[in-house]
Amino acid sequence: MVAIFKKMNNIVEKQNNEKFIQYLKAQRIAYSQCKIYKTFDFISILIAIILPLIGVFKNELLDYLAAFGVLWTVIYLISDSYRKRKTVEGAKIQEQFDIELFSIPWNKILCKSKINSDKITDLAKKYEKQDLKNWYSKEIKDDLPKEIAVLLCQRINFSWELNLRKKYVRCY
User: Which residues cross the membrane (predicted)?
Assistant: First the structure.
């Protein structure tokens, strides 16, 4: 008997199509833009500590320090809003990558609307590296049932996110 090879999923092959690489590029840029504002958050914490200390030793500067504190708070709130928007944008782009790659429906309740394709293109153009091939492991064989392959990919995502969260907690 001759065994007939049946391809059950095409995740490894499909993930490297230009459309999917565009998603990954856009996602990277959105998250990179978000990280810039994480640094701003750290600076804001330092300012919140330093300004009152200066005020204790330089009473004549209290009015100026208070005015600067109010101004800085407004700037911080604006930047926080932008950071949150970029975080959601990056997460939605990653979600679009996954749902299209895995051929599953978009969750309108959880994710609401998709990111517009023009926005994805604009973000992707800003990414200059060529290092986004094989987002998911090449070890996910195409003879695996699609459901098993998707679960393995989601496990990879979960492990990556868990490691990222551990690094983040150590930094802050």
Answer: 36-55, 61-78
Mean pLDDT of 14-29: 96
- Alpha-carbon distance of 92 to 119, in angstroms, equals 12
Host domain of residue 119: 11-171
4 domain residue, yes or no: no
Residue 6 counted as domain residue: no
Q: Is residue 3 one of the residues assigned to a domain?
A: no
Can you tell me the distance from the alpha carbon of 127 to that of 33, in angstroms, rounded to the nearest whole number? 12
- Taking 80 as the threshold, does the pLDDT of residue 169 lie above it? no
pTM of the model as a whole: 0.79
CB-CB contact of 67 with 18 (8 Å):
no
Do the domain assignments include residue 72?
yes
Calculated CA dihedral for residues 99, 108, 83, 76, nearest 10 degrees: -170
Per-residue pLDDT tens over the stretch 106-139: 999 999 999 999 999 999 999 999 999 999 988 8
Q: What is the token pair recorded at 59?
A: 């009473």
Give the count of alpha carbons within 13 A of 41, CB side only: 12
Q: How many domains in the chain?
A: 1
For 21, the 3-state DSSP assignment is: helix
